[in-house]
From TrEMBL:
One Gene Ontology cellular component: Cul4A-RING E3 ubiquitin ligase complex
UniProt KW keywords: Cell cycle, Cytoplasm, DNA damage, DNA repair, Isopeptide bond, Nucleus, Phosphoprotein, Ubl conjugation, Ubl conjugation pathway
Biological process terms in GO annotation: DNA repair; protein ubiquitination; ribosome biogenesis; ubiquitin-dependent protein catabolic process
Protein family membership: Belongs to the cullin family.
Chain ranges of the Cullin family profile domain: 637-865
Recorded GO MF terms: ubiquitin protein ligase binding
Pathway it works in: Protein modification; protein ubiquitination
Protein's UniProt keywords contain Nucleotide-binding: no
Repressor found in the keyword field: no
This protein's name: Cullin-4B
């Protein structure tokens, strides 16, 4: 409707068709405008709710309005009773969609208390809040002027901006003119051409949309013209268009007292009345003769003055009005073509300054930058004069470019499209970037301005980026080849990281973001992607061996950037673990330290995976797979040694760790246990060692023993630990049994002369011990018989088999130096008791008296005569016991301790015992293999050899060779469990 009334152009006012001597003025609703400013500020979320605008005092300076400044003040003092900015609240700063329509919440943003608080923050804390203060102050003053509702408001508030406007030179009018100029400079300085109004300014902040800026400019301009055209106001009746608002507009704008002329025209229809606005045809005023040519000459002079950096003799407002008049009278096309010609002529006249061959590259770039900056500044000024043309005729004519775009086209066509100028520009830019890459200091602002120029001219990718990426690829390809020969891997990796950071800085400071992906990929490919295998082969093992966590983290971070980088790193990591682990496991000389080294190695690899490789699932799985691979390269031995290691840690006397540390160690050992395939080997040795600990009371902690048992049960199931649990149960039952036995002795007269403790063991739970018969002293035999009678009466039908090899005792010894208590094994006790009768015995006499077999007797005598506590002398002296030796009571024996534990040699496992345990495991495996074969064949009835072997591998829980399986099949055929097919020897039948 507005454009219709204005004959196709949106104007601030038109002649009143009813009263030709008056005008109709158009304004946008200021309430909606102030809310629009607030909402646009809040909606700039991608740029951190920051708006950029020209400083009101210096239009060449760009200021930032940061909403975060107000949020910081609110968060700081929201719990305070007295606040510097009391109008700030949760609803004001974080409004919902519904609350954004509330006028009071919007006005609370533009409040003078907020302005004062921002000034105080800047003064006291040195914060950069003055930009936000300037922004709020501008709109606060503007709102105070346009929101005057009565003539007394200014006096009451003591604010001159709240006084009604009574003259054109009043302070409010001065501000409105400055405010309008500020809005125009805002669009020119921070804005973009209208056809690019949806773009944003990278690195600065957002801007008000062009629609909002235009509405503010239009309304402010209308207010100014209302005052200027109504001073003095002619007495006349005024009516505005109906149904446009439900408020009294004159009161809102404070114009009710202009020239002391009170008027108020309600905009709603009175009930029962009908009003129509009829616009009658009226003659358009004629322009003076030669107006077109004279006006154009005036505009032409102004444009040339701008282009030559001279002062303009005519005011910009007059020039703007001249443009408006020409456009309003159908001369817009003439005006556009004339301006285009002036711009083209000016640019062409400056081409020659860039052509001399002797010009230095840097000087050439500075000259180009200066000319470009001048061109932009000139086009901004020219556009501000021809703004009416830009917003009317050009906007409505899609086939022609806006004034700004026209200037860019001219610059591109006549300057940057010139082959020599273009090549010099690009070569100069590449030269400066090359200098910076070589460590020299360059003018980054010059690079930024010129690259921004290429972007604005839309030739950045075509002219610069292709050459830049090609140069970059050549540089880093050569550098990568050279440094791979010169530098160690850690230094090379740091150099690559440094280069990548440098390129990121260039992207941050002057390169366009569209270059980011191809540039970074180029650097990564040439410095990393082309050298993945050499880097890993040359340096990864060293980094892992030396435990260089920072370098390992860096190699992971860098390799994650390139294709196949992590997969190759993971593969080499796998090889290193297998190679290092194989050295630990396969060397028999390291058997004593194997488990400890494996635990330490596993800890190191865990730290590397967790801290350096970011717990990447691929690396976690690789670590598990590699450990499982090398641990089982030496069948059975790691399982045996893990059981032995546990025995040492769970045995009494181990004071190396607290309970918490021991629990943590058990968890780590369980990790190794999961890797071993021969878990039955572990179970056999663990059970044998557990039996010794339980029987001789050598467990460091019952809780630790049960904790380990619980972990094994959780890992392998109840069947795996059923016998181990039975051993603990036997020990508890034995305690109860001994308590009952002692009660029994109190009520009967039994010839028991010593304190005796018996552990009754269920044969199926405990390891199998070879039978051993010795000559016991009569007192001991009596005790055994008394207990045997007691037990068999309690459990008739059972059979007791004594195992003296597991017994131990405490002897009281009288030495000339004093009495002692000796903690010894039963075999040691039998030997020592002989010396109650005489002081010297031959080896043969001891053997005949005790009945101990040779191997055990020699170890026993060696512990008594050759150990630390030598209660006997061996004649002749020596470490080894021979059958010709004699043994004499050591009457000179001395020791500071009263209770002395003599090393129990029989507790140390012999090679023979190890072989027996391993043979027992092998026999158990044979039984399991036979049972599995029969189970499978009973189900299938007939099976091929290959299918049978495959199913056996699936069912068996221990490693087994195909040759061993074949032997078991042959054994079952010999025992008539299976039958070979007559026609096909690789097929078996089950024999029922």
């Amino acid at each position: 409707m507005f454009t219709l009334m204005c004959q196709g152009n949106l104007a601030n006012c038109i002649s009143n068709p009813v009263e030709p001597d008056s005008k109709l003025f158009f304004l946008f609703d200021t309430v909606h405008l102030i809310k629009s400013v607030r909402n646009n500020w809040f909606n700039e979320k991608t740029l951190g709710q920051v708006l950029c605008f020209p400083s009101p005092d210096n239009s060449s300076k760009i200021s930032l309005a940061k909403l975060q400044d107000l949020k910081d003040i609110y968060e700081t003092e929201k719990l305070n009773l007295i606040k510097k900015a009391p109008k700030l609240s949760q609803k004001v700063l974080y409004p919902t969609s519904f609350e954004k329509q509330n006028v009071l919440l919007a006005l609370n943003i533009f409040h003078d208390s907020n302005s004062a608080a921002l000034a105080q923050e800047a003064e006291e804390k040195g914060k950069d809040t003055m930009g936000t203060k300037e922004f709020i102050d501008q709109f606060l003053k503007w709102w105070n002027i346009v929101n005057v509702k009565n003539s007394e408001k200014g006096k009451r508030l003591k604010n001159p901006f709240c006084d009604p406007i009574k003259s054109s030179d009043q302070m409010s009018m001065v501000f409105l003119n400055k405010f309008y100029a500020w809005l125009v400079s805002w669009e020119n300085k921070c804005g973009l051409p209208l056809n690019k109004r949806k773009e944003r300014l990278p690195g600065k902040g957002g801007k008000l949309p062009n629609e909002t800026l235009f509405a503010l400019q239009f309304t402010t301009k209308s207010l100014i013209e209302i005052v200027e055209n109504n001073w003095p106001v002619k007495k006349s009746k005024r009516e505005l268009c109906e149904n446009m608002s439900d408020v009294v507009s004159p009161k809102r704008y404070g114009l009710s007292t202009v020239s002391n002329y009170p008027y108020a025209t309600p905009l709603i229809n009175r009930p029962g009345s009908t009003k129509k606005l009829i616009i009658k045809n009226f003659e358009k005023p004629k322009l003076p003769e030669n107006y077109k040519q004279q006006t154009w000459e005036k505009l032409k002079s102004a444009v040339i003055a701008i282009q030559t950096s001279k002062s303009i003799s005519t005011s910009q407002e007059e020039l703007y009005q001249a443009v408006e008049n020409l456009c309003s009278n159908g001369m817009a096309s003439f005006l556009y073509e004339g301006l285009r010609g002036l711009c083209e002529t000016h640019i062409k006249s400056n081409v020659d300054q860039f052509l001399p061959d002797s010009m230095d590259s840097v000087y050439f770039l500075k000259l180009m930058n200066e000319f470009w900056q001048n061109h932009c500044r000139q086009m901004i000024m020219i556009r501000s004069i021809f703004l009416f043309l830009d917003r009317t005729y050009i906007l409505q004519t899609p086939e022609i470019s806006s004034l700004w775009d026209m200037g860019l086209d001219m610059f591109r066509i006549h300057i940057l499209s010139h082959p020599l100028i273009q090549s010099r520009t690009v070569e100069g830019l590449l030269l400066l970037i090359g200098h910076e890459r070589n460590g020299q200091t360059v003018d980054r602002s010059l690079l930024k301005n010129l690259l921004r120029m290429l972007l604005d001219l839309q030739i950045y990718q075509e002219v610069f980026e292709v050459q830049f990426l090609k140069t970059t690829e050549e540089l880093y390809a050569a550098e990568g080849q050279r440094l791979m020969q010169e530098l160690e891997v850690p230094l090379y990796l740091k150099h690559v990281d440094k280069r990548l950071n440098e390129e990121w800085e260039r992207l941050l400071h002057y390169l366009d973001q569209s270059t980011k992906k191809p540039l970074i990929q180029c650097v990564e490919k040439q410095l990393l992607g082309e050298h993945l295998s050499p880097l890993l082969q040359k340096g990864l093992d060293q980094l892992l061996e030396e435990y260089r966590l920072n370098d390992l983290k860096l190699i992971y971070d860098l390799f994650s950037r390139v294709k196949n980088g992590l997969s190759q790193l993971c593969s080499h990591f796998n090889l290193y673990i297998k190679k290092t682990g194989r050295v630990i496991v396969s060397n028999p000389e390291k058997d004593k330290t194997m488990v400890q080294e494996l635990l330490e190695f596993k800890d190191k690899m865990d730290v590397i995976v967790n801290q350096c490789f970011q717990k990447n699932e691929k690396f976690v799985n690789t670590l598990k797979e590699a450990f499982e691979h090398f641990v089982n390269q030496r069948p059975n031995k790691p399982a045996e040694l893990i059981a032995k290691y546990l025995d040492v840690k769970l045995r009494a006397g181990n004071k190396e760790a607290t309970e918490e540390e021991l629990e943590l160690l058990l968890d780590k050992i369980m990790v190794l246990f999961r890797y071993i395939h021969g878990k039955d080997v572990f179970e056999a040795f663990y059970k044998k060692d557990l039996a010794k600990r339980l029987l001789v009371g050598k467990s460091a902690s019952v809780d630790a023993e049960k904790s380990m048992l619980s972990k094994l049960k959780q890992e392998c199931g109840a069947a795996f630990t059923s016998k181990l649990e039975g051993m603990f149960k036997d020990m508890e039952i034995s305690k109860e049994l001994m308590a009952a036995f002692k009660q029994h002795l109190m009520h009967v007269r039994a010839p028991v002369t010593m304190d005796m403790t018996v552990s009754v063991l269920t044969m199926g739970y405990w390891p199998t011990y070879p039978p051993c018969e010795v000559q016991m002293p009569s007192d001991m035999l009596v005790c055994q018989d008394v207990f045997k009678d007691f037990y068999l009466k309690k459990h008739s039908g059972r059979k007791l088999l004594w195992q003296p090899s597991l017994g131990h005792c405490v002897l009281k010894a009288n030495f000339p130096s004093g009495n002692k208590e000796l903690q010894v094994s039963l075999f040691q006790g039998l030997v020592l008791l002989m010396f109650n009768k005489k002081d010297s015995y031959s080896y043969e006499e001891i053997k005949q008296t005790t009945g101990i077999e040779d191997g055990e007797l020699k170890r026993t005598l060696q512990s008594l005569a050759c150990g630390k506590a030598r209660v006997l002398h061996k004649v002749p002296r020596g470490k080894d016991v021979e059958e010709t030796d004699k043994f004499v009571f050591n009457s000179d024996f001395k020791n500071k301790l009263y209770r002395i534990k003599i090393n129990q040699i029989q507790m140390k496992e012999t090679q023979e015992e190890q072989s027996i345990t391993q043979e027992r495991v092998f026999q158990d495996r044979q039984y399991q293999i036979d049972a599995a074969i029969v189970r499978i064949m009973k189900t299938r009835k007939t099976s091929s050899h290959n299918l049978l072997i495959t199913e056996l591998y699936d069912q068996l829980k221990f490693p087994v060779k195909p040759s061993e399986l074949k032997k078991r099949v042959e054994s079952l055929i010999d025992r008539d469990y299976l039958q070979r097919d007559l026609d096909n020897t690789n097929t078996y039948h089950y024999v029922a």
